[in-house]
Amino acid sequence: MNETIVKFGYPDTLLGEYDHWVVLLRPGQITAGCMVLACKEEAERLPDVSAEAYGELPRVTGDLEAALSSSFEPQKMNYILLMMVDKYVHWHVIPRYDSPREMGGVTFEDSGWPRYPALSDAATLSDAQFLELHNLLRANWPEA
Q: How large is the average pLDDT for residues 54-77?
C-alpha cells in the first residue's frame, strides 16, 4: 500500500478493498461517515491513474454510497480531490446532511450545508465511537 493509504490508517480504518482502490474511514469526521477513497497505484496525478482503476470506480463508489445510504441517508455526496499534503491520488468523501445525525453519543452537524463542507469542523470521536462508526458502515457494506 502506498504512503497515503497507510497515513489514513490502513488496515485499521479499512471499509472496502478492491483491485485498484481502498475505502477507509476518515479519522477526522467532518460529517457522519466521512471516508477516504484512495488509489492503490502510486499515481500522483489523475492522468497517471490506469484505465483499469477508472473502470472500477463505479463499483467502488456505488458500494460506499450504498453503505452510507443505509447508515445515515445523506442528501448529497461530495468527493474532494485535494492532494496538497498526501501525494497519491485520493478523494475525501464527505456525505452531506440537511439535519444532524447521531451515533454513539455523538451529534454530527453539517455546518457548511448547503454550501461547501466545513473541513475544519471535524467531530472528535473516542476510539470506541470511531470503532462503532466503522462497524456500522462495514455492516452496511455491500458484499464484494
A: 98
Task: Please determine, for residue 144, whether its predicted confidence score (pLDDT) is greater than 80.
Answer: no
pTM to 2 decimal places:
0.96
CA distance 25 to 14: 6
Q: Which pLDDT belongs to residue 138?
A: 98
CATH 3.40.50.150, applies to 3-131: no
* pLDDT band at residue 49 using 50, 70 and 90 as cut-offs: very high
Query: By the 8 A CB rule, do 26 and 9 touch?
Result: no
Which distant-in-sequence residues (6+ apart) come within 8 Å of 88 by Cβ? 2, 3, 4, 5, 38, 39, 41, 42, 43, 44
Residue 39 and residue 20 in contact, taking contact as beta carbons nearer than 8 Å? yes
Backbone angle region of 83, left / alpha / beta, with phi > 0 → left and psi within -120 to 50 → alpha: left
